Amino acid sequence: MKNANNRRFYSSFFIFHFSLIILLSSCSDVMDPNFTVSSDFLRANNVTLGGNQEKTTLHIDADCNWTIAEEVDWLAVSPVQGTGSQDVTLTTGVNPSAIDERSCQLTVTSDDGVRRVVTLRQSKADETLTASTTAINFGEEGGTNSFTITSNTTWTISGVAEWLSYSPSEGSDNATIQIAVQTNNTEYSREAVLTVTGASGQKQTVTISQAEKAVTLTIEPEIINATAIADDYTFQIHGNASWTITVDDNTWLTLSSTSGTGESTITVSPVDNTSTAPRTANIRVTSASGKIERICTVTQAAATVPAVMPVTIPNLGRYIATFASAFTSPLKVTDYGFVWGTSPEPTLENCTGRVSSADAALLLTETSSSGKAQELSAGTLTADVENLRSGVKYYVRAYAVNAAGTGYSTNVTFETSGNIPGDDDNPTPNI
User: Fold this and answer.
1) Residue 25: how many CB atoms within 10 A of its CB?
2) Is the whole model's pTM more than 0.70, yes or no?
3) Per DSSP, which regions of 199-249 are E strands?
4) C-alpha to C-alpha distance for 101 and 106, rounded to whole angstroms
5) Tens digits of residue pLDDT in 148-164
6) What local confidence, expressed as pLDDT, does residue 269 receive?
């Protein structure tokens, strides 16, 4: 019994020692404790490297030869092979992305095929966002241009103006932004600000500016001399400007238009000036921007009574006479004729006899009309007058009436033939 137990003991002891020898014999055993990644390295593997980190150390503990295989071109490993325990330097650049982290695996392999896989992670980099310019200028004709965005993140562009467009309006990393600007047909320079905003809120601005349209604006004539009677006058606007018209005093004149663009003819229509003083108004033509102003000055003549020529008497008898005269007026003539009497300077209110435009005995020959309504402004008068007394000295004047008053000719005297009759004489006897 004792011998049997001894045999079992020696048999077990032999098996234990044989197994231990196999376990420790070489690096080729997968479970070989002499080829391991150090606990320091393992702890490093569990730490994500910063996005801007460039170097770290991987410590290898081993008692055999080993090699390291790398999988990416952004990581440099030195050395890539060695013997026993050694520090390996891992060099990486800045993560080009501020959006995503990146990772890779390193495979450490012994000569006998024992493998350890190490995962290296690098966090995303700090966000960078720049624009190639802060300002782009366009002439009035507009056109296209561009600027570039250099970035490692996503971004969007904001900024709105109806006269410009840009593309793309959002993206990531680097990009070229195309700008298109329409022709500026206004007299104002204009500006829009494009704001490029990164994922973390970083901003860059690009100011788009465009020059105003080069405008011209002239008027012709710059002076209008108007008569007192209502009439139409014109002046021309030349150039390519958009314009508005104002009048210093528009109580007595009207305009055919007060706004427009480019070439135009403006009709100016003053009403009758019934005042005895002339009046003036400045018509101001101003470009839309206010940078150009042209002035047309309208001066309207004062109102005056008609000018009446002295009376001529081509035919004179004992009881009859023929009167002739002429008048001109700056305003419409509403009445005309002859007045006479035995006292000097007879008037409509103080006369012995009168013949007016309402009488058939008075003949008018119109020699001129004026104003937009073509009103009577000049004429000649002829009247055959009866019922005069014989042998009497008379005074006669022609007259004409307009809105300003009554104009008279100078006194003309004449004397009928025959003896002076008594008070009871018939001035028109049938003889």
Assistant:
1) 10
2) no
3) 203-210, 217-220, 223-226, 233-239, 242-247
4) 17
5) 999 999 999 999 999 99
6) 95
Residue 295 and residue 250 in contact, taking contact as beta carbons nearer than 8 Å: no
pLDDT of residue 35: 39
Distance CA 209, CA 193 (A): 9
Separation between Cα atoms, residue 27 and residue 53, nearest integer Å: 34
Structure tokens at 85: 């325990």
pLDDT of residue 72: 82
Give the number of other Cβ atoms within 10 Å of residue 245's Cβ.
Answer: 22
Helix (DSSP H) and strand (DSSP E) numbers for the chain = 2, 36
DSSP 332-372: ---EEEEEEESSSS--SSS-SEEEETTSTTEEEEEEEEETT
Domains, in order of start, for the chain: 36-122 (2.60.40.10), 129-210 (2.60.40.10), 217-300 (2.60.40.10), 307-415 (2.60.40.10)
| Residues with Cβ within 8 Å of residue 32, at least 6 apart in sequence | 26, 64, 110, 114
Enter the DSSP assignment of 24: H
Containing 9, the helix (H) or strand (E) segment is helix 2-24
* Residue 147: strand pairing partners: 177
The string over 57-74, giving b where at least 16 C-beta atoms fall within 10 Å of a residue's C-beta and e elsewhere, is: ebebbbebebebebeeee
**What is the C-alpha to C-alpha distance for residues 47 and 57, in angstroms, rounded to an integer?**
12
Angle at 40 between CA 65 and CA 33, to 5 degrees: 45
Distances (CA, A) of 411 to 20, 312, 327, 396: 162, 11, 15, 6
Q: Is the pLDDT of residue 117 over 60?
A: yes
Amino acid letter at 121?
R
Amino acid identity for residue 385 in this structure = V
Residues 6+ away with beta carbon under 8 Å from 17: none
Q: Which tens digits make up the pLDDT trace of 32-84? A: 443 344 333 323 343 467 777 778 888 888 888 888 887 788 888 888 888 88
Buried b (16+ CB within 10 A) or exposed e, 89-117: ebebebbebbbeebebebebbbeeebebe
